[in-house]
Amino acid sequence: MPVLAFRALATLVIPSLASAHGGLTIPPPRNNYRNHNPFNLTKDASQGAAGHAGGACAGDECLWFSEGCWTGCPTCSATMPKVGNYYGTPNCADFEPLEPTLPEAFRTWNIGNPSRKGDWTRWHPWRAPGRAPVLDPCGTAGGYSKPQGGGGETPAGAKQGALGSELPPLQGERTEWLAGDTVEVGWMVGANHGGGYLYSVCPKGTPLTEECLQAHPLPFVGANHTIRYLDGRGQRVIAARDVDEGTLPAGSAWRLNPIPACNCDKGFDCARNDTTSEGGARLAYADGEQPTPKGFDCPTGTQAPVPFDYGYGQQVWSLADPKAPDNALWVIVDRVRAPAAKGDYVLRWRWDAEQNPQVWTHCADISVV
Predict the structure, then answer these.
(1) pTM of the model
(2) C-beta separation of 95 from 76 below 8 A
(3) Is residue 336 part of a domain?
(4) Average pLDDT over the chain, rounded to whole?
(5) Is residue 274 part of a domain?
(6) DSSP 3-state of 318
(7) Do residues 293 and 318 make contact, with C-beta atoms less than 8 angstroms apart?
(8) Beta-carbon neighbour count of residue 256 at 10 Å?
(9) Contact 12, 54 (CB under 8 A)
(10) Residue 312 domain-assigned (yes or no)
């Protein structure tokens, strides 16, 4: 079994909750500013009913990402497309259209292209997993070249545009895996952008590049996710879906984000006469699930069946009902196969979005013994 050591600092940094996106949680990443314990909770009044120092976006980790990363672009633009992140066209230099490589059965957004805008995600990262460029293998601070409200703010302890690959390992942390063992990794959804993800490693002493990480993907073990709650309610198991067709590295198995957003282009604030979607009430709640909390209804259904209570939505971190447990505080835990060779590695989680031309990449440090 893996040996994991989580040592919280005396003072934990309260994260920004502005349009949080998502972040590597197990093991704690370098991007997690001084906030080592992903399972620490707080009821600080300034954080609302579901205040949490170690929940979604702990240490502002979810503000480290790459923006303007279209398939067919040699680099990311780090700027907002002219008509926004949904319908914008590639704003990079030397764009060469790349047809989607992802099988249609693994779409997570605008499935079947019912939108009046047509197939508007066709050049977004998840449509060709692993082929979109990134600004940095471990993410950049704020994602955009200049701070941007609504999710492009400068993370705590960093300068806008700082490179995640240049961050030092977290002090006071040591994560050990047994060579070849089945080990746990996990991430949290802040603002849900669909898509899917992959874990990989790069041996320390080797330049930390996208090429190195692509050369060492970690295979998933088993066919399930574990949803682990952070408020002590335990955990539950749900089915996972993997795709290894049309992915990069060739044949690597990427895992779908299991959390569906509402079934409209925005993924939230849907209406039956929504002007940006013709999807209608195709999918509603899974059997036995409860309706969404007041203010977060999905009148046009969800992009896919809801896998568990409160396991849906766009701004997942904000769904908790003040009168209910912290329903939104959970980690998507998976099992992967540890490297067979002993040594020190940088672990990388990469999440390719389908809703937006964005990629999240966070890095952590592990020792294989």
Answers:
(1) 0.88
(2) no
(3) yes
(4) 82
(5) no
(6) helix
(7) no
(8) 20
(9) yes
(10) no
**Residue ranges making up the domain that contains 193:** 1-261+323-369
- Residues 14-43 as b/e (b if ≥16 CB within 10 A, e otherwise) read bbbbbbbbbbbbbbbbbbbbbbbbbbbbee
Unique residue bearing structure tokens 């992009």:
303
Q: Reply yes or no: is the peptide bond before residue 249 cis, omega within 30 of 0.
A: yes
Number of domains in the chain: 1
Highest averaged pLDDT of the listed ranges 40-44, 263-267, 293-297: 263-267
Inter-residue contact 303 to 263 (CB < 8 Å): yes
Query: Is pLDDT above 50 for 349?
Result: yes
| Domain assignment present for 71 | yes
Pairing of strands 358-368, 174-177: parallel
Q: How many residues belong to the chain?
A: 369
- Measured distance CA(40)–CA(150) in Å, rounded: 25
- Looking at residue 159, its pLDDT comes to 97
Residue 47 burial (CB count, 10 A): 15
b vs e for 228-246, b when ≥16 Cβ sit within 10 Å of the residue's Cβ? bbbbeeeebeeebbbbeeb
